[in-house]
Amino acid sequence: MQNNYVESQKIVNIRTNSYKIENLSPGQTYHIKLKKNTIYGESIPIPNINVTTDDTIDFSIEVAGVTVKQTESQVNIEWFQSPVYKTYYIKYKLIRRLSCIKDRIESPIQVVITTNTKYTLLYLEPNAQYQLFVTADKNQNMKAHNFTFITSSKVPTIAPSLLT
Predict the structure, then answer these.
(1) pLDDT at site 3
(2) Which of 5, 21, 28, 68 has its Cβ near the most Cβ atoms within 10 Å?
(3) 3-class secondary structure for 59-97?
(4) 137-162: per-residue pLDDT in tens?
C-alpha cells in the first residue's frame, strides 16, 4: 500500500476510451482515480469515482495451482488460496480396481470440505485408480480434466500358508 492506494496500473491504450479491470473481489468498493499523462505532461484531473462490484461469486472459475503428490500411503493435495473462495471441495472417486479388473467402475463421488489450501487423503484403496479435482462449487460433478492417480499396492503382513 502506497499513498493510500492498494495498486496502481499504468495503462497504455491509445485506441479506445475504455479499460476493463479484471479479477476484482465481489462485494467490494473500489475508488478509481484517473490521470492522463501525455508527451505534453499531465492533464487536468479527471473526476474520481467509487465503484462497488456485484456480490455474486462465480464458482465456475477453477481453483488455481492444484498439485497432487503421492507417497506410499497417502495423497497430498495443495492449491493456491483464492481471495474470493473461502470453502473448497475436494472431490474424488474410485474408477478402477487394478488387481481385479481393468474395466472402469462406477463409484460415488467422495467429497471433503475444507477451508485450508492443503489436504491429505488417507485410507484409499490400494492398487486402485482414482480421479480427483478441487473446486469451490459444492454442486459441481466430475469434470473433463481431473487429476488421475494410482495408489500403491500393499505388501501382505502375514506369510502365506500352504493348503494340504
Answers:
(1) 46
(2) 68
(3) CCCCCCCCEEEECCCCEEEECCCCCCCCCEEEEEEEEEE
(4) 888 776 666 888 988 887 666 666 77
The Cα 113–Cα 71 span in angstroms is 22
Q: At 121, which amino acid appears? A: L
Please give the grid coordinates belonging to residue 42: 499531465
Largest CA distance in the chain: 100
**Domain spans of the chain?**
67-151
Residue 14 has pLDDT above 80, yes or no: no
Distance CA 109, CA 158 (A): 33
Assigned fold of 67-151:
Immunoglobulin-like (2.60.40)
* Over residues 1-18, mean pLDDT: 58
Other C-beta atoms lying within 10 Å of the C-beta of residue 109: 14
